[in-house]
Amino acid sequence: MSELGEFEIIERFFSRSRRDRDVLVGVGDDAAIVEAAGPLAIAVDMLVEGTHFPHALPAAAIGHRALAVNLSDLAAVAAKPRWATLAISLPGVDEDWLEGFAAGFYSLAERFGVSLVGGDTTRGPLTVTVQLIGEAPRAAPLRSGGRPGDLVFVSGTLGDAAAGLECFVAAASRPAPTASDGREAPAEGGPETEPAAVDEAHLIARFAYPEPRVALGAALAGIARAAIDVSDGLAADLGHICERSGCGARVDLAALPLSRALRASHAAAAARELALHGGDDYELCFCVAPADRERALAAAAAAGTPITVIGALTAERAIVGTVDGEARALEPRGFRHF
Ligand code: ADP
Ligand code: MG
Fold it and tell me: For 262-291, what is each residue's pLDDT tens digit?
């Protein structure tokens, strides 16, 4: 523990300024003041240690995730991220931890053109709340915009982060090997462990450092009729679109995009379960009128993000998964914050 006080913490770790003509007042005054040109999208997400991330997660990953989850929310409404505030409660002052956290946060902020303009710093259980403000299009895709017959797409692959969290928790609870074990760490590139270790590292990175689909979200403005970011699991989040749009959905379970790492490390049914109910994917799920299919594919190609059609919205209210010609109702079960 060091003796840094609240203002020294803010000054040392959270006062980096970046060139942004629209920030009239940033960190250091009673309120930030920004110049906005039109409609704003505003999202906030609270990450609580033990509920949203495990205790041992590296500080840089916590900093990255705290901003990434909000970038993902803004991506869903096709907004351009601009300004963030950060409220953080810390059990104590650990300078290395703060250094890592700030590095994770600022590197993502820099990549997406986000300025940290204010926040709050206090002692308490580790909790990180980021609020993100961005420029919104006038016709943003909303959860309520879906219509029966719309194609349902998802970006990227699903289920990796949930599998990665399992791997991370299992690895963190394994006792560290000691010299008296008489075992040596496998040599890098060792033939037996390498493929599984590479898969595991990929899955853990998908949990620890999610890549928000900001470019795809922006490219879908005017094309997607409804959108949501997949944070609690596809079944739960597609369920929100269906509920708000007053329809149901049919999902071709064989079409769910699964990464090579997930398929290599899990049996098909287990991989599918993680894709449907696992959570923490931060992919986009969106609905497109059939006539706009090619426009959606072109927008995704321009954004450099793979997308996959997984089904369609239906007039019947249920969410139904089909595989091998059989249909079953999908529970809208996902990650629960309570
Ligand atoms: P006040 O008491 O007026 O609310 P604070 O003393 O809490 O202000 O904070 C001082 C300044 O530092 C404010 O501009 C606030 O926005 C900023 N700030 C506090 N904590 C953080 C943080 N974690 N990240 C960025 N800015 C912060
Ligand atoms: Mg004040």
Answer: 999 999 999 999 999 999 999 999 999 999
Give the ligand with the smallest distance to the CA of 32: 1
Do residues 196 and 260 touch, judged by C-beta distance below 8 A? no
Instruction: Calculate Rg over the CA atoms of the chain.
Output: 21
Nearest CA-CA partner of 231 in 239, 243, 221: 239
CA of 17 to the centre of ligand 2 (A): 20
Tokens (6 digits) for 158 = 């699903």
Over residues 175-213, the pLDDT tens digits come to 876 655 545 555 555 555 678 899 999 999 999 999 999
- Please state, in angstroms and as integers, the Cα–Cα distance from residue 198 to each residue in 28, 188, 336, following that order: 44, 11, 30
In whole angstroms, give the CA distance from residue 208 to residue 161: 8
Q: Is 137 in the pocket of ligand 1 (CB under 6 A)?
A: no
Q: Residue 118 pairs with which residues in a beta bridge?
A: 85
Q: Which numbered atom of ligand 1 lies nearest the CA of 118? A: 16
> Whose CA is closest to atom 2 on ligand 1?
30
